[in-house]
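dumping this here before i forget
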Amino acid sequence: MFLVQRPSQQSINRFIDESKDLPLSYGPIGLVRPESAHDDVVDVAVTVGRGRDDFERACAALVAWKHFDIGWVELFPERASIDPGTVVAVLIRHLGFWSLNGCRVVYRVGDDGAPTTFGFAYGTLTNHAESGEELFEVRADPRTDEVTYRIRAWSRPRAALARLGHPVARLLQARFRRDSAEAMKRATRDDQRNLRHRFPSVPLCG
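structure:
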């Protein structure tokens, strides 16, 4: 949905409600999993810390959607669950206009008890300008102690305006990956106790 001005909170809430029964706009689920052989997957990883404490902070930051704290992109509801089935709206400020896009959390990673991996993926709904899937993941390397934040994404333009502005959309996606990485670096430096206080019932890594 493209808009000439920022939508009201009431409009955003209505958009989320109307999105809950919409299907995904792509398939199959899991096409950006590391073991997937799907072509054209963008894979970016950056170091955001070192050691177990930084890994825990990075996990907490993902739970709190801190990787979306980049100013020109907003996520609603602000405290959305990362459990599969959760529907969110992504509000993006473009050059002179706004877009509101529906997504659904489709799976989590690290729920098998792996102590070094944590994250989740969401997929686009049919009211999203793009069609695709994106995975947000943090990992701790047991050999080097490095903590990395990784984005794996695959998408194609779906809306007519997105197809016309495809080169611009690709630039915005690259900008999102850079800004999201910086947001995770900031979040990993935050006091972990504050994040745990906000989300005391959410099990984190390991």
